[in-house]
Known about the structure:
The chain is mainly alpha-helical. It has helices at residues 17-30, 44-51, 55-71, 88-97, 103-108, 110-123, 132-135, 137-147, 160-177, 217-225, 246-253, 259-268, 273-299, 302-330; strands at 3-9, 36-42, 79-83, 152-155, 185-188. It has a three-stranded parallel β-sheet with strand order 1-2-3.
Amino acid sequence: xxxxxxxxxxxxxxxxxxxxxxxxxxxxxxxxxxxxxxxxxxxxxxxxxxxxxxxxxxxxxxxxxxxxxxxxxxxxxxxxxxxxxxxxxxxxxxxxxxxxxxxxxxxxxxxxxxxxxxxxxxxxxxxxxxxxxxxxxxxxxxxxxxxxxxxxxxxxxxxxxxxxxxxxxxxxxxxxxxxxxxxxxxxxxxxxxxxxxxxxxxxxxxxxxxxxxxxxxxxxxxxxxxxxxxxxxxxxxxxxxxxxxxxxxxxxxxxxxxxxxxxxxxxxxxxxxxxxxxxxxxxxxxxxxxxxxxxxxxxxxxxxxxxxxxxxxxxxxxxxxxxxxxxxxxxxxxx
Length: 335
Ligand code: TRP
């Protein structure tokens, strides 16, 4: 029996390197493993919990994200790529799960907690932004996972509390309605959290420090030139510590074959930061070029993207329908 892999991503912007190295690069590896049946959800309903007042942006980002994913090598023949809002069974399942979790537990969820703090910082108070839908999104994510019998969930580190929440809901469901659902397990990549070039612990869109896969050469150049290096290195021939330098960190991430030299020269004071940044810019562009190339193809073949999403969604929905039938039987609402 194949193992079911399920993961999701919100269409709130383009894919950035934090996501790529933290999670989506791993997805591309997993799709080639014949032991897995892989569902990948574009979580537009979840994006609406934060962006309900800007639906055209969410819609635009569904296509942007699909193109990003296809450009990094996602193969729609190997992965069911689908749009959450087109599978009403997920919404239905969310309603049934909402009885199985308390408000207190949702407020204690570390991911929800952090996001409420961010909202407060952004809007001054939680006021209008902490809606029922927002606080409940972990419940809807549990439905995302279980509608497709997700067993392994390849995600970045920030998603662990949401998977734990799903496991609790599954246990509760099974204890009341009978042993039907599987408890999912997270699958972390070897680099589940990626630092920003600005030295912050995480690269993120909302943190304003993201490098996007679709960034132009000029944007890449500007961002890398502003990266944080060892603050003790003042002059170009000062010896420095590459292990606290964001430029070195990114040399490592993109697997610069010249890595050892970069490290040695930096330690000995044989390379200046400007030279080192220029090398990173060049290597980064070499890394991004094939992705940019593929993206251009999909930008010129929108109808192909639409077809991929339509077919992926159809096959995913068939699975969700099967699950829903079993859930309805278990819950005795199969009239
Ligand atoms: N919460 C995830 C994010 O913000 C996206 C997501 C939605 C997801 N549904 C999921 C992740 C199911 C894993 C499993 O990126």
